[in-house]
Design goal:
Layout lengths: L19 E4 L10 E2 L7 E6 L7 H11 L1 H6 L2 E7 L3 H9 L14 E3 L4 H5 L3 E2 L4 E2 L1 E6 L5 E7 L7 H13 L17
Parallel strand pairs: 3-4, 4-5
Antiparallel strand pairs: 1-2, 1-5, 3-8, 6-7, 8-9
C-alpha cells in the first residue's frame, strides 16, 4: 500500500467516508459506478459482506433484496459491498440458485477490489483481504448514524435494520425494542 488510509475511519456522528466503486447498477455494462454523493438526500443502508459464492452471504443479500421496497418506502436505498470484482458480482447474480447463485436482486452490489472502502469503514480483515459483516446507516446529509460490525458466521436482520432506520428518522429518543408507530420517550 503506497499511502496510509488508516486516518479515515468511519465514526458514528461524523461525515461518512467518501467512496466511489464499480457496481452492478448496470448489470450488462458494469460501467456505472456508485459513490456516496449519489445518495445525498436519501438514507443509505450500506452493508459489507465477505465473499461472493459463499453460504451466509446470499441469505443476507436476498433478504435485503426482498425488503428493498420497505427500505425505499422509508426513503432509504440499499447497497451491498464486498472485495470481489464486479465481474464476480455479475456472474453470481446471473448464476442460478442451483449453482449457489443469487438470482436477480433489487439493488446494486459494489466492488471494493482495492480494499480502500473496507479499510475506511474499519471492516477489512487485512490478512485475508475480505470484509467483516459491517452495516452502516448514513443519513441524507452524509452523516454516519449507525454502525454495527460482527464476525463472518452470522447474517444480519433486515427487520432490525429497518427498525433502527425508522427510529433514527423520528429524530426522537427511542427506547429499546421501539417499533414504528410507538411513542418516543419524552425527556
Amino acid at each position: 500500500m503506497s499511502e496510509c488510509h488508516h486516518d479515515v475511519i468511519a465514526k458514528v456522528g461524523a461525515p461518512a467516508p467518501d467512496f466511489e466503486m464499480q457496481s452492478t447498477r448496470n448489470i450488462e455494462t458494469l460501467k456505472e459506478n456508485v459513490k456516496l454523493a449519489d445518495y445525498r438526500g436519501k438514507w443509505l443502508v450500506m452493508f459489507f459482506y465477505p465473499l461472493d459464492f459463499t453460504f451466509v452471504c446470499p441469505t443476507e443479500i436476498r433478504a435485503f433484496s426482498d425488503a428493498t421496497a420497505q427500505f425505499r418506502k422509508a426513503g432509504a436505498e440499499v447497497l451491498g459491498v464486498s472485495t470481489d470484482s464486479v465481474y464476480s458480482h455479475r456472474a453470481w447474480i446471473k448464476s442460478g440458485k442451483d449453482l449457489n447463485g443469487l438470482g436477480e436482486i433489487s439493488y446494486p452490489l459494489a466492488s471494493d477490489i482495492t480494499r480502500e472502502v473496507s479499510r475506511k469503514y474499519g471492516v477489512l480483515i487485512e490478512g485475508k483481504g475480505i470484509a467483516l459483516r459491517g452495516l452502516f446507516i448514513i443519513d441524507p446529509k452524509g452523516v454516519l448514524q449507525y454502525s454495527v460490525v460482527h464476525n463472518l458466521g452470522v447474517g444480519r436482520s433486515t427487520d432490525e435494520t429497518l427498525r433502527v432506520l425508522t427510529a433514527f428518522q423520528t429524530g426522537e429518543l427511542c427506547p429499546a425494542n421501539w417499533k414504528q408507530g410507538q411513542a418516543p420517550l419524552k425527556p
